[in-house]
Amino acid sequence: MARLTRRTFAIEREVGEKIDDLVDGHPLEVNLLVNKALRRYVEWGRFVDSFKLVTIDPRLLKLFWSHLTIDEAREIGLQNGNGRVVEFILT
Fold first, then answer.
1. Rounded to two decimals, what is the model's pTM?
2. In angstroms, what is the C-alpha Rg of the chain?
3. How distant, in Å, are the alpha carbons of 4, 55, 80, 91 from that of 52?
4. 89: closest CA among 55, 51, 40, 60?
5. Distance (Å, rounded) from C-alpha 55 to C-alpha 53?
6. Are the beta carbons of 23 and 33 closer than 8 angstroms?
7. Residues near 23 by Cβ (< 8 Å), separated by ≥ 6?
8. What is the DSSP string of 24-89?
């Protein structure tokens, strides 16, 4: 089991009610749910706004890429990747 750090914080009533609904009254599951949400934010979610990232269904992405040639896909990657990689690393 991972080492835990205890934290106390306040959340909005509506958020607390939604968490309670999700875990159906099991207190341990509240901890797991909140840890998962915080981990997702800390490791990934905080970058979403600054890089204009979106979540997309892999099937839709596959369909999108199937309508491009290799050269078109390469050009899109070059146009969007050159500056963003450095920006992502420095954030």
1. 0.57
2. 19
3. 32, 10, 12, 14
4. 51
5. 7
6. yes
7. 29, 30, 33
8. TT-HHHHHHHHHHHHHHIIIIIHHHHHHT-----HHHHHHHHHTS-HHHHHHHHHHHHHHHHHHHH
Token pair 């890089």 is found at 51
Q: What is the pLDDT along the chain (91 residues), one digit of tens a residue?
A: 578 888 898 999 999 999 989 888 787 788 889 999 999 999 888 877 777 777 899 999 999 999 999 999 999 888 877 766 666 665 5
Residue 4 phi, psi dihedral angles, 5° rounding: -110, 150
Query: How is the chain split into domains, by residue range?
Result: 12-54, 56-91
| Cβ proximity of 35 and 76 under 8 Å | no
Among 44, 42, 43, 20, CA closest to 31: 20
Q: H/E element holding 22? A: helix 13-23
